[in-house]
Amino acid sequence: MTKKIIIDTDPGVDDALAIMLAFNSPELNVIGLTTVFGNVAVERSTANALILSEFASYPVPVYQGQGTPMQRDTPNYPDFVHGADGFGNIDWPASDKQAESQNAVDFIIQQVRANPGQISLVALGPLTNLGKALEQAPDIAGLVEEVVIMGGAVHTSGNVSPVAEANIIGDPHAADKVMTARWPLVMVGLDVTSQVLLSKEHTAAIAEANPRQGELLYRACDFYIDYYRDELGIPGCMVHDPSTIAYLIDSSLFEILSGPIRVATDGLAMGQTIFAPAGRRYPYPGWENKPNQQVCFKVDKQRVLDLLIDRLSHPPSLD
Ligand code: BDR
Ligand code: CA
Predict the structure, then answer these.
(1) Over the stretch 99-154, which tens digit does the pLDDT of each residue have?
(2) Residue among 14, 82, 171, 240 flagged as catalytic
């Protein structure tokens, strides 16, 4: 059965890869893109989501969401990773389409209530929209099909501090709210996303096989892959956001641990995701009476890479 998904996103180069992967996957029906600050300001992430929406073979509306975190100051935008435009400084022409007038948080609440047990929420940026939606409508926790988030790190290091991953530190208060809500949540974090690397040879092959979508992806990834080479000395970009979509398409690509997750909201450890294995009792408080969530901790990296390249190379027909 096709899954109805809402993608909450801050495009973002790897967001673009993830969104095109979702568009090209018959298992998924993207009913909307909701935007948030993160890799760029929210106005820019909305403009980029509108550009991306034109690459779907069916209409995908875009809803603008939150421009600032729930409590902390807005972090600096990482233009050295995603470019000032979020697409690797490629100067891609703006879309003629407009965002919907409804706010992203209201759209999420309305859709989850109208389709009980049917909507999967996929979060590819800071968790502010989801945190606000829970704050305004706690009942949605019992109504979603599942929540799949790219964010966090359990057994591996962070990518913006020794312990924090970028999306989680972007709004740690929202992240703690989202992780501890009583809804079925899957965390697709750096433990798995940092294992899968997409190279320039891969993006060139995608662009050759599928020029309509591949040109934007190839040009955006050029800058992003250079960042990974120069900063980390590795020959490709990490497949962060697309891994959430891979999970939705085929969860057997991942191995899962179960247990409560908390997020440190201040101090040196701000943005750290702290996982407690299910059933383990500790003399120090914080994890008791919190729901068990699912954490991806191992990945079949070759199969994820093959899935990504195959789907991005073979878009559905536009007829
Ligand atoms: C996450 O942060 C952003 O830079 C990427 O788009 C991804 O969602 C990786 O830490
Ligand atoms: Ca992202």
Answers:
(1) 999 999 999 999 999 999 999 999 999 999 999 999 999 999 999 999 999 999 99
(2) 240
pLDDT tens profile 205-243? 999 999 999 999 999 999 999 999 999 999 999 999 999
Active-site residue, selected from the candidate residues 10, 176, 241, 300: 10
Active site residue 10: yes
Strand stretches in the chain, DSSP E: 3-9, 28-35, 62-64, 119-123, 146-150, 185-188, 197-198, 237-238, 254-259, 261-263, 273-275, 293-299
- Expressed in angstroms and rounded, the spacing between residue 17 Cα and the centre of ligand 2 is 10
- Burial degree of 193 (CB within 10 A; 0-12, 13-18, 19+): buried
Buried b (16+ CB within 10 A) or exposed e, 246-255: bbbbeeebbe
| Nearby residues for ligand 2 (ion, Cβ within 5 Å) | 10, 12, 15, 124-125, 241
The Cα–Cα gap between 204 and 187 comes to: 30
Fold of 3-313: Inosine-uridine Nucleoside N-ribohydrolase; Chain A (3.90.245)
Q: Is 240 annotated as catalytic?
A: yes
Q: Which residues line ligand 1 (CB under 6 A)?
A: 12, 14-15, 39, 81, 124-125, 150, 159, 165-167, 240-241
Q: Which residues contact 280 (CB under 8 A, 6 or more apart)?
A: 259
Q: Which of 73, 77, 97 is nearest to 85 (CA)?
A: 77
Residues 11, 178: Cα–Cα separation, whole Å: 21
Helices (H), 145-280: 166-170, 172-180, 190-193, 200-209, 211-232, 241-249
